[in-house]
Design brief:
The complex is a heterodimer of chains A (257) and B (74). Chain A contains nine helices and no strands. With 257 residues, chain A is mainly alpha-helical. The chains are: A mainly alpha (257), B mainly alpha (74). Chains A and B meet through helix 3, helix 5, helix 7, helix 8 and helix 9 of A and helix 1, helix 2 and helix 3 of B.
């Protein structure tokens, strides 16, 4: 691999953490489907999606290679910024308690209740197959986008990004096989915060590269941008908290409602 | 093909949650791409300007969300 660690390490980490969040969300629903409707249909649906997803990568990968690199860097950078800043904003608002945290146990309970209400049939349970196919496709497409977006920024980056995503998938599958229940203790908001920072830094860097903006220090601008977005997020949390303190009666009313 | 609908919605939702945040990010990228080169600033400052605009947009979007909650509850 002819790339420096300043590029490879953040690529692996960003893909790993982002994929971890998506895999945990998919696992919750697949576990719910399996425990209520049987493992054959749950794993069948997931397996079918895992066959379709590499086909999407196989089609998109060569197509991207035909587009000039600076156009890809601008497009992918813009998408990474939309994605990363959206996650970072949500993580900040969740951290200060303005919007509720994502609850895997609640998602599991909701899905099991929904599936119990559907009448089952012998053989392949199509409702179960469809539910696990859909969730694996939904979360899998997000993982595919993250891997392609991180990997498209420069030559040789697809391998570290894929490595991060595969490591996350293996970890979640291993944990799922071990604990057999939703991974409710995963600090999802902290992960989303870290991923939001990493993807925003990558997005800014790719857009700059695509526009031929010379970054001081070259690739070393990536860690500097990561620190920059971390400080921005910390400062924003402080500003939001102080604003909430000034309107404490409103917050108190919200907590009691 | 009914399963495609939620996937398309999910992909759109990947990038757009708060519409105004997405719009301002895209506007700022357009400004940096098209207008900033017309301004006589050193090239090295363009990267800093790109980052600063995005950082301000993030902080503004979070503060705006809180202001909206205050308006709705107060």
């Amino acid at each position: 691999m002819d790339i420096g660690w300043t590029h490879a390490a953040p690529s692996i980490l960003a893909a790993f953490f982002a994929s971890l969040v998506e895999c945990v969300e998919a696992l919750t629903i697949v576990l719910a489907v399996g425990s209520v409707r049987g493992w054959r249909s749950a794993l069948g649906g997931s397996g079918a999606a895992l066959v379709v997803l590499p086909a999407i990568v196989a089609v998109l990968g060569p197509a991207l290679a035909r587009i000039p690199l600076n156009i890809i860097q601008i497009a992918v950078g813009a998408l990474l910024l939309l994605f990363g800043l959206r996650w970072l904003r949500k993580a900040i608002l969740r951290a200060i308690g303005v919007i509720p945290l994502h609850d895997e146990a609640a998602a599991f309970a909701k899905e099991t209740a929904r599936l119990r209400a559907i009448c089952g049939a012998g053989g392949w349970d199509m409702a179960a197959v469809a539910a696990s196919f859909q969730i694996t496709m939904l979360e899998g497409i997000e993982v595919v986008f993250i891997v392609i977006a991180i990997g498209a920024g420069g030559a040789g980056l697809l391998a570290p990004a894929s490595l991060g995503a595969v490591a996350a998938l293996l970890l979640v599958v291993a944990l799922g096989l071990t604990v057999h229940r939703p991974l409710a203790n995963v600090p999802e908001n902290s992960l989303k915060f870290v991923v939001g920072v990493l993807l925003s830094a990558f997005g800014t860097f790719w857009v700059g590269e695509g526009l031929a903006i010379p970054w001081p220090g070259g690739d070393w601008a990536i860690p500097v941008l990561i620190v920059g977005f971390l400080l921005t997020a910390a400062l924003t949390m402080g500003l939001c908290r102080s604003r909430l303190h000034r309107s404490l009666p409103i917050v108190a009313r919200m907590e009691h409602s | 093909m009914r399963w495609l609908g939620p996937i398309v919605r999910e992909i759109f939702g990947l990038f757009v949650d708060d519409g105004s945040l997405a719009l301002i990010i895209l506007c700022w990228l357009t400004v940096v791409a098209l207008l900033l080169p017309q301004v006589p600033v050193p090239l090295a400052w363009r990267g800093a300007a790109l980052f600063a605009g995005l950082a301000i947009t993030l902080a503004w979007s979070c503060l705006r969300h809180i202001a909206r909650i205050e308006r709705h509850t107060g």
